[in-house]
Amino acid sequence: MTIAIDTPRKQVGMGQLSVGAHDDQLQALLGSCIGIGLLWKKGGRCGLAHCLLPEAPTLDGSLGARYVNQAVPSLLRLMGVRLADYADIDVVLAGGASMFGGRNTRLQVGRQNVEAAQKYLERCGLHVGFCALGGCHGRQLLIDCADQSYAVTEVAVSAQRPGRASNPYAGAIHGHA
Fold first, then answer.
1. In the predicted model, what is the mean pLDDT of residues 89-109?
2. The pTM is what?
3. Distance CA 40, CA 106 (A)
């Protein structure tokens, strides 16, 4: 007899953020967007932001994740993290791929998102424990709040022969905070 336990999985869409605890799982599918995952063992919570762009033209203090510089403080606030707790936060970064090709810097949104995430996390004094960034393929970031772990799976587009299905998941990386 097999018993399946259905774990609540929250899909975090573009420009969204989510906070979970206990058995929650937070997941984002990323290309040039960047996923910022915060794992807080002592607080028993995790957060995930799915950021589209590096910096908002102006910040008004509202919660959100469209921009990296908006997402970092928003996640910390929603998770209830105080400045004294920052040393206990483990950060996972994924995404930031070059999905549009070419050398036009305006189209290098992935690289700009990576630079912004590193800059704003460093400003907060948050330690990035794992990065899966850049390249030219998408990634899926999954954060499991139950055991404070993460998994990053590469999503590759491969040429396939007519009539044959392919598995888009090229490889996976797993870790614990």
1. 82
2. 0.84
3. 35
